[in-house]
Amino acid sequence: MLTEEHIKEGLSRAYVTALAHSAGMNCSIREHDYGIDGTFHEIRINKNGRRCENGFRIDFQLKSCINRNVSNDYITYDLEAKNYNDLVDTDIGAPRLLIVFLCRVIPRIG
After folding, report:
1. CB distance 109 to 1 below 8 Å
2. Per the CB 3.0–4.6 Å rule, which of 34, 48, 88, 101 could disulfide with 64?
3. Is 23 buried (19+), middle (13-18) or exposed (0-12) by CB count in 10 A?
4. 15: helix, coil or strand?
């Protein structure tokens, strides 16, 4: 049986991929984590009528949690300093964002 962390990771990756595809974008998930978990890639139709990535992208860091902290219009998430520093780095080639996926149910088998 998968660990709770692996279940949350799998669910959050599936969700973010579905979200990208529903927006008409491509999504790539990193094999190795160096502060960025994945990238959304914008798709355009070129002058030959082919769909292709246009080079615009947004990198993201993906976190998942079970407990939510919502007050008024804000969701709070206790992000580790090292992860925060990766997100706010200004010497980068693409904008970055944090995606926090709320896992409402973690399946229990057995």
Report:
1. yes
2. 101
3. exposed
4. helix
| CA 87 – CA 108 distance, rounded (Å) | 33
Q: Is 33 helix (H, G, I), strand (E, B) or coil?
A: coil
Query: Residue 68: what residue type?
Result: R
pLDDT tens digit string along 60-108?
999 988 877 777 888 888 899 999 999 999 999 999 999 999 887 665 6
Q: Are the CB atoms for 24 and 51 separated by under 8 Å? A: no
How far is Cα 81 from Cα 50, in angstroms, rounded to an integer? 43
Pair 61, 86: CB distance under 8 Å: yes
